[in-house]
């Protein structure tokens, strides 16, 4: 057989080989795509499983220890609240003492000004006049002595303090009662001189008038039949 007769056979065999190679090349790429496409699915599942494990509590302390710590925290909170309450009460008392017109401190200041401006007191003691509270044995001066009480549903305050001029000294006595309007009015206010205690200087004395008004306002007892 001549070469010219074999040439068509060789060309056909070559084209057949090329076609076979063309259809067999994509197989490795498909395998690679399949393997790489499934890999992220497994990793995402492992990541989600790991994230689920982080929700589990890591506190492995005994229950008794946790209860003890919570009790200690509650006790600290109670102490803090108690301190805040005591501080608020102290501020209220200080504010009432300094700014309320019915506080003992303001009653003392108002009475002292009246005594210092009284001409009879100036003449007896000698101006200028100063006031002070009780004295201890060591000569230290304490706060002004006062007493608050309730009688027949009416509030009273009784006070005593000392005054001194450049000539003599004396003791101021006063008592006030609370009115229906909410303020205080004098029952009495007088100065007892140290050198003549039996002749006080009376600035106010409304006891008889107030007692008479209270007796008139109170209902008369009905006679027993």
Automatic annotation (TrEMBL):
Membrane topology annotation: Single-pass membrane protein
Residue ranges with Polar residues bias: 38-51
Keywords (A to Z) from UniProt: Membrane, Mitochondrion, Mitochondrion inner membrane, Protein transport, Transit peptide, Translocation, Transmembrane, Transmembrane helix, Transport
Region entry Disordered, spans: 38-57
Protein name: Mitochondrial import inner membrane translocase subunit Tim21
Pfam families per the UniProt record, alphabetical: TIM21
Family: Belongs to the TIM21 family.
Cellular compartments annotated: Mitochondrion inner membrane; Mitochondrion membrane
Transmembrane regions listed in the UniProt entry: 76-99
């Amino acid at each position: 057989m001549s070469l010219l007769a074999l040439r068509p056979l060789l060309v056909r065999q070559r084209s057949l080989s090329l076609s076979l190679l063309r259809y067999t090349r994509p197989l490795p790429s498909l395998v690679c795509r399949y393997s790489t496409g499934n890999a992220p699915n497994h990793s995402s599942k492992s990541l989600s499983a790991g994230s689920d494990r982080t929700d589990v509590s890591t506190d492995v302390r005994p229950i008794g220890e946790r209860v003890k710590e919570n009790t200690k925290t509650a006790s600290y909170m109670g102490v803090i609240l108690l301190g805040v309450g005591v501080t608020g009460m102290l501020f209220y008392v200080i504010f009432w003492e300094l700014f309320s017109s019915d506080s003992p401190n303001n009653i003392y200041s108002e009475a002292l000004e009246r005594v210092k401006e009284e001409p009879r007191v100036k003449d007896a003691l000698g101006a200028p006049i100063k006031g002070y509270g009780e004295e201890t044995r060591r000569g230290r001066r304490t706060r002004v002595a006062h007493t608050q009480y309730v009688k027949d549903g009416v509030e009273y305050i009784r006070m005593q303090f000392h005054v001194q001029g450049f000539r003599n000294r004396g003791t101021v006595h006063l008592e006030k009662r609370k009115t229906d309007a909410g303020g205080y009015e004098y029952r009495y206010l007088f100065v007892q001189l140290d050198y003549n205690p039996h002749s006080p200087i009376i600035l106010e004395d409304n006891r008889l008038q107030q007692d008479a008004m209270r007796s008139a306002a109170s209902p008369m007892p009905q006679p027993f039949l």
